[in-house]
């Protein structure tokens, strides 16, 4: 792998910089800035070396359609303030953009292309689209570890058409995760939550041999509860997962890995509702399961108490509404309590998990915090991520 930090002579060079600025945004306001803060080193490095920077990022999942709510505008404005320098968002159709259209004013140093997932070619890892993007720049830098598990045009295919380098944050994250995973102390407990069930449910089976306990909370827990015959009302779930879950339980038995899931839940009639604790069999047809219940919290705290290492990706509930944030906050507090006594090694990853930790100022008491969620889990799985493979 070649690293951007080793590059000399970046003066006036056009750098196509892939970042993951997929930050949580509510009513047009960014609710957690961590992913922006983490890429300031690479931006400052390129500014110092007088490169011309073309930033590419995605936000959300617009699925190839333009969506006003998923513009990179608030992110550009935030970055502008942080680096005290003008950042220009180019809203023109990327497909019609020509090299000479960019940096026509010589003083301008940083431009953003609009959300790259407005183009269906991105997720298709499209060859022509990647070639077209490559013509806009001289070199490519990937500083988006957290979306390097996606074989997308601006992460993977683009590397075939430009000299490509690893960014500073990507390098930091890979080095940290490499070290952590080779020096891990048992018992190891992995907590997996969040709402991206399809990304994560297939990974669990491969994590089982590496861990002593896997705690499943968040959206994926609904699938497990449903599989075991419990009602889940209108809660999110992924279809056709029963054979995957079958396999999870079988594999766990072979490897003596404990699979832990909720014993009780917290529901609401909508995402904005108040919290109501329920036993598993009490969930009604019009209920949404939005958090774990008190019995489950106690069980998870007990497992954390008896672990040497904890890895955590994905909140336990819909923490965006404080009524459903208790499960996630209690997990975080228990880890912090043990970490302060230096009795646990703790790693957390993912945009939403970081947002939870920031809400209760817990970040400082984790040994390592990765910007990556899905990519973090796939890395733990031992997979070579498409974006990293492309750099190698
Ligand atoms: C993330 O938030 O994990 C990354 O930005 C990837 O997003 P995705 O799951 O929509 O590909
Ligand atoms: Mg995310």
Question: How would you characterize this protein structure?
Answer:
With about 400 residues, the chain is an alpha/beta fold. It is built from 14 helices and 17 strands. The mean pLDDT is about 95. The protein has helices at about 35-40, 40-50, 75-85, 120-125, 125-135, 170-180, 195-205, 220-225, 240-255, 295-305, 325-340, 350-360, 375-380, 385-390; strands at about 15-20, 25, 30, 50-55, 90, 110-115, 140-145, 165, 190, 215, 260, 265-270, 275-280, 290, 310-315, 345-350, 370. The protein starts with 13 loop residues before the first strand and ends with a helix. Strands 5-6-4-1-7-8 form a 6-stranded parallel beta sheet. The chain has a 6-stranded parallel beta sheet with strand order 11-10-9-15-16-17, sandwiched between helices. About 35% of the residues lie in helices and about 20% in strands. α7 (about 195-205) packs parallel to α13 (about 375-380) and α10 packs parallel to α11 (about 325-340). 3-phosphoglyceric acid binds near residues 146 and 196.
Structural class: alpha/beta
Shape designation: globular
Largest beta sheet: what is the strand line-up?
Answer: 5-6-4-1-7-8
Proportion of strand residues? 15-25%
Bound molecules: 3-phosphoglyceric acid, magnesium ion
User: What is the mean predicted local confidence, pLDDT?
Assistant: 97
The tally of strands reads 17
User: What does the largest sheet look like?
Assistant: 6 strands, parallel
Fraction of helical residues:
25-40%
Ends apart, CA distance between termini: 5 Å
Any idea what the radius of gyration is?
A: 22 Å
Low-pLDDT residue intervals, each spanning 5 or more residues: none
Give the number of helices: 14
